[in-house]
TrEMBL record:
Protein name per UniProt: 3-phosphoshikimate 1-carboxyvinyltransferase
Catalytic activity: 3-phosphoshikimate + phosphoenolpyruvate = 5-O-(1-carboxyvinyl)-3-phosphoshikimate + phosphate
Broad EC category: transferase
Family that this chain belongs to: Belongs to the EPSP synthase family.
Function comment: Catalyzes the transfer of the enolpyruvyl moiety of phosphoenolpyruvate (PEP) to the 5-hydroxyl of shikimate-3-phosphate (S3P) to produce enolpyruvyl shikimate-3-phosphate and inorganic phosphate.
Binding positions (phosphoenolpyruvate): K36, G113, R141, Q188, R366, R411
Organism annotation: Adlercreutzia faecimuris
Pathway note: Metabolic intermediate biosynthesis; chorismate biosynthesis; chorismate from D-erythrose 4-phosphate and phosphoenolpyruvate: step 6/7
SUBUNIT field: Monomer.
Catalytic residues (UniProt): D335 (proton acceptor)
Its EC number(s): 2.5.1.19
Length: 451
């Protein structure tokens, strides 16, 4: 693989990191790194395609490097280099009609659920046997949601009955198309089934209980695969040929949520986050903050491929009010629930996130972790069935000397860091280095925005 070795030399962090208050309010223009979901798809779709794709703005993070390493092991030729702005750009030459090669050993997906689950769909239509594994966190995450539909299509997984990684998948050149009702709104599940469906015989259709992110439906046609997409339905007809495409990745709204929420909480702040994906299936956090009374607005500025792109303007808002986030909207903000819960902790009244059961099976049990972290702050938060309730306190004072445990989860590490960055006293975050999974330069970027 010709991918430049180290991500733009991000800061190294020890077991405990002291996060000091920012030296002033957040102001000016911010840029966040490339979207993680779109980066994974760009790399993986390019690897599946015939010919050489050109990719720019790709996120350079541990998770995306897991996808790059995986497609290389499967026979694609990625040639991506770190750019002056810290992104990855270059080419990926795919295996195309020849299919992936038999890898020499197990493929380690690291901490990345998206890598592992999308790869299962990639491998399914080809006569190869691939062992997929990951770090301790990924080995705890449920995989049956992916293996069940792929087995219906004709792929095999061993050991039989095992629901977690490591798993060995054997694909089938005679994959069957399926019509599938997904039990949960998951773009990883939807994408795995659609990617298998590209090479299955017939029309593969997936229905979901609520709309999940639709980057796959938007990007597959760019790679020459006609895709039907509606609010809760997507389908592809195979076998289809995938051909190389050029992809420019816009900024990641899930990373943007951190400076946005920091600006809301830090008095005097006024900030614009430029060039982020404004896909409606990703910007549920903006709509939720609007409903809480936040001074926030989005500006649409065009498209990157089929992805809507633009800016988010936000200013410090002294009084926020709690709200109810309906279950149907959770998929559109699923990775932002931790940081939204922190904002809710300062709002007047109770905020209820309906049916957030999916949070229990992310990098850690984020539901339990949010409640544990808010309790340190003296904020009452509790589970009510699968709902998360947070009783806000607009007069919240952060006690000195708090130590938050990230549990090795990048979204939690950044959420608890905001307590220190936007407050009056430092906080300690354990295992802060896991931010490298999605946003390696998070702390430097936040410090740069403080004026
Ligand atoms: O498809 C994707 O790129 C992702 C989908 C979501 O997971 P689920 O599909 O499990 O909801 C999200 O939490 C994850 O960060 C990325
Ligand atoms: C859940 C996440 O990613 P993944 O499922 O790819 O590990 C995330 O980035 O918050």
């Amino acid at each position: 693989m010709s991918t430049s070795p180290a991500p733009g030399a991000p800061r190294a962090f020890g077991p405990e990191t002291l996060i000091e208050p920012l030296c002033g309010p957040l102001a000016g223009e911010a840029r966040v790194p490339g979207d993680k979901s779109i980066s994974h798809r760009a790399v993986i779709f390019a690897a599946m395609a015939e010919g050489t794709s050109r990719l720019t703005g790709v996120l350079d993070s541990q998770d995306v490097r897991s996808s790059i390493g995986a497609v290389h092991a499967l026979g694609a030729a990625p040639d991506l280099a770190v750019q002056p702005d810290g992104s990855l750009a270059g080419t990926v030459t795919g295996w195309g009609a020849a299919g992936p090669r038999q890898p020499a050993g197990p493929i380690d997906c690291g901490n990345s659920g998206t890598t592992a689950r999308l790869l299962m769909g990639v491998v399914a239509p080809w006569p190869v046997t691939v062992e997929l594994t990951g770090d301790e966190s990924l080995q705890r995450r449920p995989m049956r949601r992916i293996t069940a539909p792929l087995m219906k299509m004709g792929a095999r997984f061993e050991p039989a009955g095992r629901e977690t990684l490591p798993l060995t998948e054997t694909g089938s050149a005679a994959l069957r198309a399926i019509d599938y009702d997904a039990p949960m709104a998951s773009a990883q599940l939807k994408t795995a089934v659609l990617l298998a469906g590209v090479f299955a015989h017939g029309t593969t259709t997936l229905r979901e209980p609520a709309p999940s992110r639709n980057h796959t439906e938007l990007m597959l046609p760019e790679f020459g695969v006609p895709t039907t997409a509606a609010a809760r339905l997507a389908s592809v007809t195979g076998p289809a040929a995938m051909t190389a495409a050029d992809v420019t990745v816009p900024g990641d709204p899930s990373s943007a949520a951190f400076p946005v929420c920091a600006a809301l909480m830090r008095p005097g702040s006024r900030l614009t986050v430029e060039n982020v994906s404004l896909a409606p299936a990703r910007t549920g956090f903006v709509r939720t903050l609007e409903r809480m009374g936040a001074d926030i607005a989005v500006r649409h500025e065009g498209q990157e491929g089929k992805e809507p792109r633009g800016a988010i303007d936000v200013a410090y808002t002294p009084v926020l009010r709690g709200c109810e986030v309906p279950a149907q909207h959770i998929a559109s903000l699923v990775d932002e629930v931790p940081v939204l819960a922190l904002v809710a902790a300062r709002a007047r009244g109770v905020t209820v996130f309906k049916d957030v059961s999916e949070l229990r099976v992310k990098e850690t049990d984020r539901l339990a972790a949010i409640i544990e972290g808010l309790a340190l702050l003296g904020v009452e938060a509790w589970e009510d069935g699968d709902d998360l309730c947070v009783e806000g306190d607009p007069a919240l004072e952060v006690p000195a000397g708090l130590v938050f445990d990230s549990r090795g989860d990048h979204r939690l590490a950044m959420t608890w860091a905001l307590v220190g960055l936007t407050g009056q006293v430092p906080v300690t975050v354990r295992d802060f280095g896991c931010v490298a999974v999605s946003y390696p330069n998070f702390l430097d970027d936040m410090e740069r925005l403080a004026k």
